[in-house]
Records
---
Amino acid sequence: MIRLLTFFSVVAIPIMITIILVHGAIKRVNLYDVFVEGATEGFKTAIRIMPYLIAIFLAIGLMRKSGAMDLLTRLMTPLLARIGIPPEVLPLALMRPISGSGALGVVQDILTYYGPDSYVGRVASTMMGSAETIFYTMAVYFGAIGVKVSRHTVPAALLAHFVAVLASVWVCKILFLSP
Amino acid sequence: MSKIWFGMIMFGMMMAVINGKTEIINEVILQDAQEAVVFAIGLTGIMAVWLGLMNIAKKSGLMNGIAILMRPLTRVLFPSVPPNHPALTGIMMNMVANMFGAGNSATALGIKAMEDLQTLNKDKKTATNAMCMFLVINMSSIQIIPLAVLKIRADAGSSAPTEIIAASIIATSISTIVGIIACKALEGRKI
């Protein structure tokens, strides 16, 4: 099962490309010219999102390297520990919505310290695979099209993230801790 | 976004001063800003590839076909988007790329979808319901094989690196459903 899924992960993108190209060839689309025409748009978009990326990287970098994240984690620990989230994975739960690569670093630390097959290690791995990178995604996607008012995106996304954190803990408890 | 950003910058700088690490402020300006540029340039290539392919799919009529196929799902999630709109194809391909862990391809396709959704938007500075829904689903979307996590688990010497896959899929499914419900509940009156 796992092997099959891994196989699909590897071939998904080539399959998508094949379908598009073969379908285009059958319909007699001028593949090369049409591709180049579309690709030109890609440049404009990538350049347009650059300032937004700089803004969000700057804010995330400051939060992480100044110790502000650590302080937030320490403040939230007693609160979140009460609802059953192991304190060891709290830095991850807080980092995940802000920075994907930052969160991966936190998981790496947790796995090295507690071991990948420990309960905490499994919860951290599950959380990394299920929770979301909210602020980066928002900055890029809304930035690309110039939307300034995000309306209910943040509350809905934060709620989903919170549920993902809780669900990771519960699912791991059921799957790995039950006798 | 503006308030969150302001808060993050000010709080970060304040903590740097309190912790006696004022030098990191300059370090962040130099390093992280540069990283953002490098990342955007890196994205340019993959963005161009996918927009080129999407352009072929649009001209060949494949996009239309996919949109019709996905109609039952998209009608519920994005009722304000016309059934054969190109945005729906972008959204669908973004979901597929996300599921299979092709992060940068997903970003490129997602930005394309957002641009298409923006053409339906009356107030260009404010997000539509469809945009909010798409972003929430995108952020919490199911990744079938979290390759990065599996790799660091294997590197850390796990005896079964893949045993967390089922747990991840269950947890994400729950959070995605909650996200969708929250989005629908918070939509309110304005389109």
---
Amino acid sequence: MSWTTVVGLEIHAQMATQTKMFCACRRGSSTSPNESICPVCVGWPGALPVLQSEAIRCAIRAALCLHCDIQEFSRFDRKNYFYPDLPKGYQISQFYRPYALGGVIPFEREDGSPAELPLVRIHMEEDAGKSVHESDGTSRIDLNRCSSPLLEIVSEPLPMTGKEAASCVRSVRDLLRWVGVCDGDMEKGNLRCDVNVSVMPAESSEYGTRTELKNLNSFVSIERSVLVESARQIEVLTGGGEIRQETRLWDQDREITESMRGKEDSPDYRYFPEPDLPVVQIGSQDVEEQRAALPEMPEIRLSRWLNDYGFPQLETVPLMARRANGDYLEEVIQAGADPSSASNWFRGEILRHLNDRSEKIEDFPVKAAELAALIAAVKEDRLSGGRAKSLLQEALSPAVSLKSLIEDAGSQEQDSDALAEWVDQVMQENPDAIAKIRAGDMKPMGFLMGQIMKLSSGQAHPKKVQELIRSRLS
Amino acid sequence: MGESAGSGVLPAPESTSLEVMAHLKTGKCTTVELIRHYLKYLDTTGRDLGAAVEILSDSALAAAQESDARRASGKPLGCLEGVPFTAKMNIATREGTTDAASGMLRGFVASEDSTAVARLRAEGAILVGKSNCDEFAMGASNESSHHGVVHNPWDRDRVPGGSSGGAAALAGSFGWAFHLGSDTGGSIRQPAAFCGATGMKPTWGRVSRRGLVAFGSSLDQIGPLTRDARDAQLVLSVMEGRDPLDATSQSFNPSETSSMKRIGLVSEGLTEAIAPEIRQRTVEVVEQLKKMGHEVVEVSLGTLSKANACYQVIATAEASSNLARFDGIHTGQRVESEDLEELYSKSRRQGFGAEVRRRIMLGTFVLSSGYIDAYYGKAQQVRSEIRQEMLSALDTVDSLMMPVSPFAPFRIGERVSDPLALYACDILTVTANLAGVPAVAIPCGFDSEGLPIGLQWMGKHGDDHRLLDLATSLQDQDDSWRGLPPGGSQ
Amino acid sequence: MVTDESHPGTDSGRPPIDAELVRKTARLARLEIDESEIPQMVEHMEKILDLVADLGIGSGSQSDSFTETEGESTLPVSEWREDVPATEDQPGGPRDPKALGSNAPDWRDGAFVTPRVVGGD
């Protein structure tokens, strides 16, 4: 018999705000445990949660790019359970009245065809802290992450493969990064995923009993765990067994899923409306403000680049990887550089520099306008390509302005004694070639040019070199 | 009294806070002299009554010295300059502990002031101590505190009411100071009525709850217990208003500016269930109001009979969640165990008293799967009916009046074994909390045993000061509230 | 007359309270309860739930209670807290971890210490 795997996703994305969801502690930048905590996130008696507005704005942007219905009124509820990383004994979440309903995640099927995973809802909630296990049999609780703002994106179940499930999560990651809602680093835990897996006979339309795989922290583990868990379920079912609805843990090293022990009671979270927080009102004006603040979405940018700039598809891959890359490139083009040269410079010099240092374009010290000026200088033959590249390298050290480097270099080269010296030296060293040229054979010209360029370490401007040789010969 | 240990002449014992400020202004005594004497009162009568559990002498005297210096140098003075006050054990203060009268929070140092306390101090009021209360403010007799019982200053064999029993006993036995309590289902008004004090439960959201150890968050309010309504007016005006650290706090405007003319007498507050002498006294006060030119009409609040049941579900449900934070890990006492689940359940079993455990059990049950719709959901529905009815009634009258307690202060130990007997104390007070409206309780004479009787007036959301104006006009007519219990001030 | 065994019920419409329900609730509330305390707890819960039965328990659907937001106080987006970190000297700002750990039963090396935590949520 052939089987179909059905997958539902619950994606937790930490929103990239300055402060936590319900207190004014810094989010996400701590280096030592419990460095960024206050009475609110430690759950002290008398401390009250106060929601922050930027998290709501982020949530609106997320809902917009996943095409959800944003609710004018939404409310927080308490999810009650005891756990050491949850100091209040409840998590503030949205259960009965989430702020966004419906929506879709666009993704690609394994055969490359486009598809959509329908969403049930997105809600806002606070993150929990972390427990670190010690060798002495204790656990240490770090509350730095506690009360950080999260979005939980809950999908409907849909028949798909593990690879496609990973592709859905990647799609969400890319979109949320694109609109500046989430840093999307799974290894840092600011994007996490629970996966519900069930199997059914291929001809069936009725979904089987599902199990939940918690806290998968890489695309590989999503893909592999779905594969492994569906295989386990198929084995159980073909052996005449039944699937128990339960939470299972993914063991990445052994590539197995394991039942969680010690949880005999099914959880009873006793959700009820959070009395410490008023109802959140999201007006149409708030939604429109965020819509206006949305950057150009990836599919629109891509088609514009392909059509207007004529970029080859393959070239766009590194440019599209992060929105900020494309934003920078656009700025360079806006400042007057021609798109094709700008793309070449970006993919060559700039990405190499960033990759070498594991830096982001936001850290790149050269302004887009300056790079555009450099590209223009080359285009107008005021600088050689090699010279321009070395100027860019110089400009990467702090406190050097590329603009002044370009000006200096330009004036230097115009009355360059060095150029004359290089040309004279090469001409003296190659009398045969000179003789041939004088006899009308222009072939050795290329050889001479190459020698001069080599002598100048690529700094000499080819056109000027040619002019100079001609004037010497005439 | 009259004379102090120093050279100054102290105010009369029954003086209100406003009178004390006038006295200080005349220079008859210094703030240090005043505060020193009040600290002595707390340390003697206050402790004898079981009402004062922490006396903050050092910080209070330092603040008094600063106040005297401000006054001497002609610097601007606060509108509560030099007035002593206490905070209930469930209200966070920089000095002292904030243990909510629970063994669970023994020694808990909040190290910063609740917003209400901070605002009062900023206006020159001087925190002198912390008052006893029922554990986590759950009770109506102040018999569940791990600091021990509080005695009613009018009859020390009787309870002071609760949960703000310490604050009420202090306010009822001696003047000068004001006292912060909290009211979830009557915890300011009922003890105020039992002890002959004035007690005000503001509109929900009017006073920031930041720094108040939560019991039933949607019901809790901090409010003053004072000698009279004028003091309550002043204290409330300093504490109230939006606080960025409490998202539910608001600045309220009165529904109108005129005084309250039409008074509704709640007929359900005069049934057989109410002690005859209290009913009798209510009728007499109605006559007095009429003499003062008020129109008094009978109004029926049919939902009153459901209010206590509704309250028991909502208050315990919220409490079960609010008290989950006391887990023996982040805060609270711990019973050591190598097993996490055992650590939780043993720590919580040991840290909480019997009444608190009972309420956590009930609150957990009414929220649990299979029961939440029938109990918590139903109670929310009834709560909205109660609120609707209250607001409709307040569309026809300015204020609704009824007794505070169905019976006089009872004997210590009389109602401890039966939770229902204790919950019966709340039947007339919980309605204001469920509807979120303001309510003021003022002493209105005594019964034949010499025990205080208190009546309460409720108004629309935001009508707190109009209510206090009404209470003031009544207190101006009849100053029997001025009397202190015999021996109370010693 | 036939009684439905799964719901023996009472006159007031409250569900039967038995020792197992008390044990289950106590487990959910993380409150250790001694077997000897159970009869009294059963009695108290019965009494209180009989009182609460005045509400008309079980009549009609209450699901609106959880989703209805009308009449509740609301805050528009712009009135919530601004996303600006507070400093230690501000009310509502971060606190020295040591001070925050000082009220915890076991605080070592800048962390809350617990018996080994199994699993995760």
---
Amino acid sequence: MLENVLYTLPESSLLIGIFVLIWSIVFSKMHGRSAFQIAKIFILISALFSVLFYNKEILSQYFVATSYTTLTYVFTCAVSLIWLSVSSKWFLAEKTSLSEYFCILALSCLICLSLIVKSVHFGILFGLLIMLTVFQYLLFRFSRQSEELYHTARRYLLISLVFFALFFASVALLFPNHLDYASAGSFIAEVSPLQRMFILLGILCTLFFFLSLAPFHFWLSEASSTLILPVATYFALIPKMALFGLFFKLQNSVFSLFAEPLRDVYFVFGILSVSFAVIGANASRFLRKIFTSVSLYQAGVILLVLSTFKEGLISIAYIYTEVYLFVLLGVYICFYAFKINGEYPLNLNSLKGVASSRPYIGAAFMLMVATLMSLPPLSYFMMQFVMLSEIAKFELIVYIVLLGLLTLLPVYLKVIETVAFLKREHNFDRVDFGLYMYLLLHIAFLTVLLIKPQILLLQTDILLSIG
Amino acid sequence: MHTDYLLMLIIFLPLIGSIFVLTAKDNHADTFKNAEQVTLLTLLVNILLIITLFSAKPKAEIQADMLAQASWHFFSFIKFSFGADVLALIFVFAAQTALFVGVFGIRKEKQNQKNILFYSLIYLTFLNGYFFALDIMSFYICFVAPLFPLYMLIGYALPERQHKILMRLSFHHFLGAMLLLASCIFILSLKHDDILLSNIDKLHLSYRKSLLVWGGLFLALILRMPVWPFHHATTSVWSALKNPLVFLTLHILPISGIYGFMRCWPLNIPYEISVLTPVFQALCIVTMIFAAFGGYAYTNAGHKLSNYIFVYDLLYLLAVFLPTDVIKLNIAYSVFAFLLITSSLVILQAHMLRESARLNLPVKGILCQMPRASIAYNLFVLAALGLPVSAFFGNNFIIVSEIFNFQLYVGTIVVVCMTLAAISLLHSLYVLKDETCVFAPEMKIKDIDFLSFIVIMIVMFMLLMSLIKPLWFVL
């Protein structure tokens, strides 16, 4: 009994954190920063217990903890810690009293993501996704109230319901005996081709919606500029890290059995994502929209690569995802550092000449952009190179990925031009010392990856026992 | 002598120097002085190291002509290999010396000097790596890596309204980078090991792969050259650049393209590409004719020099495509002299333009008021014309002879274009030394400073000595 309680500690510690925060709201008036500190402490505890019980779980018919799920969750926790740290600076600057509610929502989302990563049962996954959607909707509503955001949030909820209906219909076909991933695969293989495609597409489209892959990406790209910065950061990084983990797990255990029908599906979604990303990034002057499009491109690349269904690609795609999300985290930390008269700029033009006013932040931002440009010998290039080398036989995909990168190039160059060469038009506020430290740590880690990229690929097969 | 360590030091010394340049304080009055001194010291030490490496004995156990080699594993299957032979060393030596001279050209500049020196050293690090690269992976990385510092350099030097041409130029460069990346991926997929540049043509590629690999490689390198239809971006940026050091960094880029062809392009051009050779030659020739006549469309000495450089870049490009490798070293010696001559001319012109802008005077006849600059400019224009005062003359003679040997018509057009470019340059000298232009005595036109003059004269001395023996400085 006690053992079982211990194994739930990664999630129950987060739950305790929520209770502590609720307690503080009801019974004591807490300082805004304290709420974030409590949330961070409980996330740290959760991550530590997750590592400690890396292969232990309860209800093993629904959840299975492996080194892969632990690694994914620890990554998510690490990014969440940084996210909450930089978000606390936003809340302090805005002098809002809603920090506790924000932290409760953050911990709730993290519980859902932890369970989603561990889940091996479509029924449970369905329930968890509904819970996650509700919490994410509340995060949406948490942002500044505006007519535009209200509509976007409502649209998000409505479209989520449509996808849940689709997912439910697919899962219903697996009911009652084939809901776990292992038997679902063999069951789907036996049904008629039409039914098979229906089930697979139902699950995949729902996942793609949550990963905001084209053409289901509009909810995020539309909202990115209207959401408050902490919420925008959350949507850009945290769920993606965990949900990509889930997607790779499903790819390994279920989808890999259906290479033939899914090859074209992946290819089409991949092409659409790359195309929408390129158009979106080139057409927009909104900073967050640009980087949401960049993220969409990366997701498209992963789908295109996986469409080859080549063995051993999942590990590489997984590490590639972690690296690009890590670089994107650096971009978002820079966003917290760019502040003009207390406002966080949304338009790229507002950043004119920021490097002359804030040289270190400007340089760090340019480094992140240069990394996303896939410039050698930076770590992101190395991962992309390794991934493309694996699929060299599929020339068309290699050229599509590179063409996408090339068409994104004017956007990156424009960003660098605005930051470095154009004359400053605004006075940028003093940057919090903590942000400098986070950026320094971030760049230090990127440098380590540059000098010793082996640490990324070290014994991945053993480390990532996805199945 | 541990030549392998020496090789790595030559590659990474500019990177170390750049860190020192970066740490120079911004608000200090002597910031630029410190940054400049660090840069000059770094380049000088590197030049001395290169001369030392020239004297090393070839390591027969590596490759017959290799003076040094160093390599390390990046991933388990990616190995970076760098090696120095005489050919690579000449190019590296030329690049360091050109930038060393170029630094003297920006001593009076006030804007973004620290940034420009910082990125110049980063650029040089990767450029050195590019010249020393032995395998395809190192070659690709050092092919692409200088593009970012180059973008930053040009961005700092160009006025805001001309950033569109920078965008176009960068797009060309990165398009080449993507094509080369695709080629590298296809090559490395055949053999998960380090593939030496000299062995690419020995790989067994299918017709389709061969087309993709060789076509990609060819386009990647050609996109660095000012050949039609890609010439406009390069020449526009050349014309717009006022900063001599940045001009020189961009000027080295087509030279790196030529070097790339010398290293990667096989003697027997693959059949898939060879069918296009006459078309390519025709493009080169037509571009060369336009470039040669282009010099007459402007009165500006800077434009004339740009067109002169343009013509010579195409001459080297035609030379590397000849089906012989006996003139490889001649091309290298000629490029070495060419870079030294043009870098000296560039900084002299920059000084004249600066004085002309400061006093609001025309440049016509300005050299008459600058005795030191006048001597230097005269000597370098004479060398640039191809008169027998440097190795430039002898090696160009051999290159043109070989072109005549293989293609008589092409050779004839090349000689005509070279003559036209030389006359255009001579005309610029005539305008700058026009004695009919009288300047009021109260206009105190400053001559080039003594230190810069000494450096330029040392460069002239190097060129003169190279007429007798190209590697005269090797012990």
